[in-house]
Structures are given as structure tokens and as C-alpha cells.
Amino acid sequence: MKAVVCRSPGELVVEDRPAPSTPPPGWALVAVSHVGICGTDYHIFEGKHPFLAYPRIMGHEASGTVIEAGE
Q1: Burial of residue 49 (number of CB atoms within 10 Å: 0-12, 13-18, 19+)
Q2: Dist CA 19 CA 21 (whole Å)
Q3: Are 40 and 52 in contact (CB under 8 A)?
Q4: Could you tell me if 47 and 12 are in contact, meaning their C-beta atoms sit under 8 angstroms apart?
Q5: Which of 19, 37, 43, 52 is the most exposed place for a label (fewest CB within 10 A)?
Q6: In the chain, at which residue ranges do the beta strands (DSSP E only) sit?
Q7: pLDDT 10s digit of each residue in the chain, 71 long?
Q8: At CA 49, angle to CA 3 and CA 63, rounded to 5?
Q9: Is the pTM of this model over 0.70?
Q10: Strand 2-8 vs strand 56-57: parallel, antiparallel, or unpaired?
């Protein structure tokens, strides 16, 4: 799968990432179709978010279809 990764402030790259495995109980595997980029992501890109480490996968407002649920 593809991910937009902020490796450091001002540096975005598209990377191939391994697909997740079977979800554990209480979790779900979601095929993401859309992701929103918000002010938090912009602050991460600018290096102005104080509570995280790099590299960081961008986009935390997602929508999609549940394809598998953990038992």
C-alpha cells in the first residue's frame, strides 16, 4: 500500500508500506478510500507540532470500507 510520509519538516515522500495483517480482537482492517489533510498535518509538515517524532504518516481523517474485523 502507499503512504505519504513526512520524513522531516518540509520533506514529503510517497512510500510503499506492507499491508496490515489480520486485525486483533476489537480492531478492524479498513480499505481507505479518502484521507483528509488538516491543520495538524500542515503543522507536522512545517515542524511546528511539539508532540511527535519523525518519520510520520500524514492524514489522520480517513474514510473507507471495513474489509475484516477481529473476532
Answers
A1: middle
A2: 7
A3: no
A4: no
A5: 19
A6: 2-8, 11-16, 28-36, 56-57, 61-69
A7: 899 999 999 999 999 999 888 999 999 999 999 999 899 999 999 999 888 899 999 998 999 999 999 98
A8: 40
A9: yes
A10: antiparallel
